[in-house]
Amino acid sequence: MNTTTPASAVSRWVIFLLAIAAGFSVAAIYYAQPLLPLMGRDLRLGVEGMGMVPTLTQAGYALGILFLLPLGDRHDRRTLILIKSTALALVLLGCSLVTELHSLLVVSLLIGMAATMAQDIVPAAAILAPEGKQGKTVGTVMTGLLLGILLSRTISGVVGEAFGWRVMYQLAAISIAAIGVAIWVIIPRFSVHTTLSYPALMRSMEHLWRRYPALRRAALAQGFLSIAFSAFWSTLAVMLLERYHLGSAVAGGFGIAGAAGALAAPLAGGLADKLGAGKVTQLGAGLVTISFALMFLMPAFGVEGQLILIAISAVGFDLGLQSSLVAHQNLVYGLEPQARGRLNALLFTVIFIGMALGSALGSKMYALAGWPGVVALATVTGAIALVIRLTEGSGRVAAAVEQR
Question: What is the pTM assigned to this prediction?
């Protein structure tokens, strides 16, 4: 029989383990970005071929979230995490062995789907959270997840340049295998929230999407922010190599700057608990838009100044995006606690559709208009997200959610 350990009995070390697990699992879909020039040289890929790797990885993540994440409401999340960690470790190992583009793209898609274990971990943290501390607990786990997103680029850039991109994927496979074992040993079983069949579970998601305007607004706003985020990170390594002759390690180093923004996730969760999620999402979207717009000033500086400006922008837009994400999750999780898995699936399906679009559009804009085109794309999509959050009625929606 499935049982969930009471929140009061869950130690901070368990939450810490969940944060680490979320970080390592989601990192799997971002290791490739600073490694793209190395992959391209090894497998003889063009710019568009390289751009397809992160695009298919993000698309796989979106598909996995849509079709696999709802299972968290129907089955023990601990078992689901073990199955996905095993699959992810195997496909990461397989990625290190590919020899041509088509097999690389297939494996990239599968990596994205298996890496959705990260999104099984976040609702698990919400369930284990003590009463009144859900925002802070989710923020803590999201800090691990977001640091995984950002520092993955730094780690993969350094390891790739020193030992080759294939070694990076082999190390990633080992890390995920170890995490799967730790989760199985330490994390408690989780209660099943519904007995719906899989087809009925999927049909219920359409009902949830139609029922909650706050869910639609949150998903669309965060989706547009994700286009901006992904367009930047998917093209940064190529731009640094072509414009400044800098390698993968430097491209990954910008992840350290972005990681500073991720550290705001627990603060954002606490603010959402106290001030309301709607306000935090507006501030986050505004900061993303301003941070990307700053890069229009790059021609006014020399090389060193341009690199510093990129780093400052990375701190700003990551801070804004992660704060907005944690607030959106806090808002969505409160809509219907028994359907957290499906609500999370809907939210993150749209987010990672945005990520996949950002990778594809970013590569296309870079090929057509260079780095200014990527900056313009990111600024415009950030502004669209801000407009969504500021649209008349958003305040009433947030207030209605908080009264539930």
Answer: 0.73
